[in-house]
Amino acid sequence: MSAAVTFTTVTCRYGRRTAVDAVDLDVAAGEHVALTGANGSGKTTLLRAALGLHPTAAGTVTVGGESARSGVEWARRRRDVAWVPQRLAPGRFPLLVDELLDSGGHPDAARAAAGQLDVGGLGRRPLHTLSGGQLQRVFLARALGAVTAGARALFADEPTAALDFDGQEQVATLLAKLPVTVVVVSHDRAMTRACDRVAEMAAGKLRVI
Ligand SMILES: Nc1ncnc2c1ncn2[C@@H]1O[C@H](COP(=O)(O)OP(=O)(O)OP(=O)(O)O)[C@@H](O)[C@H]1O
Questions:
Q1: What is the superkingdom listed in this entry's lineage (predicted)?
Q2: b (16+ CB within 10 A) / e for 181-206
Q3: Which of 74, 77, 173, 205 has its CB surrounded by the most CB atoms within 10 Å?
Q4: Is any atom of ligand 1 closer than 6 Å to the C-beta of 150?
């Protein structure tokens, strides 16, 4: 099942610097949107805010019409939205590949996806020993497990940035088939072509192309 995702005048700051400036974006249930734009334009911060990983100075993000304020609601948001981060969060070592895969809520599906993404044999490896491309594949596999576990949307932050050309095509094809709402930050043509719509951020503001 997929859920609509609605960003309403979302504003985020780092100290006095505004990184996301009153962004409105309606993503229909099941729609796939690519988010592009210059480095530093606010894409990562916007997605992190939707997951409760960065505070909003103003505005709201709803998933399936539900907003999140309390700890319980944010925990539900993180089950509702599978997340493929750009990089490892600092301070979470040493986590093994299998532990990360299992954290998506459906170990069997995540491990099957890891096999499909050619990282099936890495289960006992600490995450910090993986190459950038291997790590991206493992995060994707966990997210696919989360979708099997019931996530209704998937957010991904440059999920193919470290992949070779074949890997970029493979992941774009795989995400295109997902029956959930997708918002993917990407500069990769294979990925933007596979999406229904492209939205571009510039200096914290969003415009739909
Ligand atoms: N931890 C931080 N502390 C202070 N400023 C930050 C921090 N993280 C990001 N910023 C600033 O916020 C703005 C938006 O950053 P963000 O990472 O959201 O951009 P982005 O569009 O995802 O960039 P990229 O394409 O390079 O990944 C930038 O000006 C950046 O320098």
A1: Bacteria
A2: bbbbbbebebbbebbeebbbbeebbb
A3: 77
A4: no
CA of 112 to the centre of ligand 1 (A): 34
Q: What are phi and psi of 118, to 5 degrees?
A: 65, 25
In this predicted complex, what is the ipTM?
A: 0.97
Query: Domain 5-94+152-208 falls in which CATH fold?
Result: Rossmann fold (3.40.50)
User: Is residue 48 in contact with ligand 1, taking CB distance under 6 Å?
Assistant: no
- pLDDT for 118-175, tens place per residue? 999 999 999 999 999 999 999 999 999 999 999 999 999 999 999 988 889 999 999 9
Q: Are 42 and 7 in contact (CB under 8 A)?
A: no
Amino acid identity, position 53: L
Probe residue for ligand 1, chosen from 7, 10, 44, 187 as the CB with the greatest number of ligand atoms within 8 Å: 44
* CA dist., res. 82 & res. 152, Å (int): 8
The predicted model scores a pTM of 0.95
Q: Tokens representing 147?
A: 């979708």
